[in-house]
Amino acid sequence: MEYWNNPKETYSQTVLPYPKDTDPIVKSLHQGEHVLFWDPGIHKNRIEYKRTVQEQCDWLNSKNIWQDPFRVATIVKLNIYIDDIKRQGVVKPMLLYYNGNEKFGIQTGENRMRATERIPKLVMLASFITTHKQYAARFNHLPQIENFEQFTEICRTPVGCKYTFTFTDRDAPYGIFWYEYDSDQTRAVTPSYDWCKRVMRNYLNKNKIIFTPAWFDTVVDWKTYE
Predict the structure, then answer these.
(1) Predicted pLDDT of residue 22
(2) Can you give the residue range of the structural domain that contains 16?
(3) Is residue 222 in a domain?
(4) pTM for this one?
(5) How far apart (Å, rounded) are the C-alpha atoms in residues 9 and 5?
(6) Which of 51, 130, 207, 222 could link 174 by a cystine bridge, Cβ 3.0 to 4.6 Å?
(7) What one-character-per-residue DSSP string does 17-71 give?
């Protein structure tokens, strides 16, 4: 079964000033079946992703986009994200998985990879790596993350910041399917799917655009299209 298409459980946790028994990172390790590592800089060439910026443009220009609101959202978010990275750098670490292949797969951060196409200096990407215990020895040179406190310290989120995790299960090739947190620094680049669909529809109604990769470098005031 392809567990990356079948997340098993979603769990929310808030950063508190004291330890909690319900630790989402401990839960994600599934009694030692999975391990989690931290790499402050993985070269983008070691990460596999789908849908280049040009492929996104080709899809947009096909005009048949409204049946896939998730993909519409990735377009709007990437436009916002590129500008945000140029102003404040990358804030949220990526979540990658490793299942024995030559390259890492992506759980969160695929738009980050597209952003590297438009921001040449964005080459090294800070990432959590979730994998099965059978591959743990390959990452012994990296810090191992064993609890939520370590995870939040790396993310540098304040007390009161809410995290959401989606897990796999013991039989999956890795432990964490997805994670998100709500902070002042990330909120601007994580709008809802419905909001993205609405502003994109309004934008296209008012602008006749042939999309090219360079369009993503243009700062759009999306709030004017709400």
Answers:
(1) 80
(2) 10-215
(3) no
(4) 0.89
(5) 12
(6) 130
(7) SS--SS-HHHHHTTTTTEEEEEEEEEEGGGB--S--HHHHHHHHHTS--TT-HHH
Amino acid at position 37, single letter:
F
Residue 169 CB contacts under 8 Å (≥ 6 apart), including other chains: 3, 8, 9, 30
The answer to the question of residue 120 being in a domain is yes
Dist. CA 94–CA 19, nearest whole Å: 24
Domain-located, residue 3: no
Spatial distance between the Cα atoms of 213 and 68, rounded to a whole number of angstroms: 20
The radius of gyration of the chain from alpha carbons, rounded to an integer in Å, stands at: 18
Asked whether the CA dihedral 99, 146, 45, 218 is positive or negative, the reply is positive
pLDDT tens per residue across span 191-208:
888 999 999 999 999 999
- Helix/strand/coil for 16: coil
Question: 182 lies in a domain?
Answer: yes
2, pLDDT greater than 70 = no
Q: Is residue 123 helix, strand or coil?
A: coil
Domain tally for the chain?
Answer: 1
Give 6-61 pLDDT, tens digit per residue: 555 666 666 665 556 689 999 999 999 999 999 999 999 999 999 999 999 999 99
